[in-house]
Amino acid sequence: VQLESDLRHALEHDELQLFVQPQWNGMREMVGAEALLRWHHPERGMVSPGVFIPVAEESRLILPIGEWVLRVACAWIAQWQKQEMTAFILSVNVSAVQFSQDDFVDQVQRILKEYNVPANSLQLELTESMLAHDEQDIIAKMEALKAIGVLISLDDFGTGYSSLSYLHRLPIDQLKIDQSFVANIEQGAKNASLAESIISLGHSLGMEVIAEGVETDPQFKWLNDKGCDLFQGFGLARPMPVEDMLSLYRNTV
Ligand code: G
Ligand code: G
Ligand code: MN
Ligand code: NA
Questions:
Q1: Among 127-131, 154-158, 222-226, 239-243, which stretch is predicted with the lowest mean pLDDT?
Q2: What is the pLDDT of residues 79-93, one digit of tens each?
Q3: Which of 89, 112, 144, 228 could form a disulfide with 105 if both were Cys (CB 3.0 to 4.6 A apart)?
Q4: Coiled coil where (predicted)?
């Protein structure tokens, strides 16, 4: 309860910050980033989203927080469009609580318009676990988002239970291999064959595949050799303030 009222205060007093973690292609070019929330609590210090997102979801504070995240994201994209970063894609995590709102798609469309941002520069990360809920509603919302032109990534992929026939019917642009499948991959761990299967599955469904939690060069190389399209992880770059990412971007292109 304390955390909840602190979180309400945080939202109103700019204690929330949006970090970004770069995403790279096989030629190690930075082609996008994932936006990740950070909370600088005045007493507790840095509170992880793993801790406060569940609190935000339970209290529904995730709704104003999620809207704030979308606005910050679109404001950045609008800047980048003027700075020769027109192909750069920013991915934003969407909570199941947000996505289940009747006006979610309208909200996204309204914010894109407000910031005059091309829809295909914004990617929404939905988790595989969200797919377990109202199938018709999910399909309808994803199709409405696709009609606007927004990209859809399926986060934490491989940890849920989506059936192939269901996946096939969803307009998903990208599968994000959960980091648990990437750990020790280069040592031929059991998860290596799973990661390889996810890459083939994604490609056979016409989807792009990104690996998260890439911590070492051998992991990057292994995944790249298997045809994985994009890479994200501490071994390439940690989540950082947006200014730092822009410096890194300018130094690497
Ligand atoms: O950044 P970190 O790895 O600590 O993130 C932990 C969890 O918090 C991840 O599951 C991530 O998806 C989630 N998360 C981070 N930022 C956001 C956000 O802006 N919105 C939502 N809904 N979840 C987020
Ligand atoms: O659930 P989601 O995929 O949105 O969570 C992303 C989380 O993964 C972020 O909290 C981010 O800090 C974390 N993360 C990003 N790269 C790595 C990595 O290479 N290793 C580990 N252990 N975590 C990572
Ligand atoms: Mn994510
Ligand atoms: Na994930």
A1: 127-131
A2: 999 998 999 999 999
A3: 144
A4: none
Under a CB-based contact definition with an 8 Å cutoff, are residues 171 and 153 in contact? Answer: no
Residue 13 Cα to ligand 1 middle (Å): 20
Q: Cα angle vertex 69, ends 126, 120, to 5°?
A: 60
253: pLDDT strictly greater than 80: no
Measure 60 CA to ligand 2 centroid, in angstroms.
24
49 pocket-lining for ligand 1 (C-beta < 6 Å): yes
The four Cα atoms 133, 137, 140, 143 give a dihedral, to 10 degrees, of -30
Single-letter amino acid code for the residue at 124: L
* CA of 69, nearest ligand number: 1
Q: What is the ipTM of this complex?
A: 0.97
Which residue, 207, 198, 234, 209, is CA-closest to 219?
234
Give the pLDDT of residue 60. Answer: 96
**Helix residue ranges, H only, 104-185:** 104-114, 135-148, 164-169
Domains and CATH numbers, the chain: 2-252 (3.20.20.450)
Give pTM, 2 decimals: 0.97
**Is a pLDDT exceeding 90 seen at residue 188?**
no
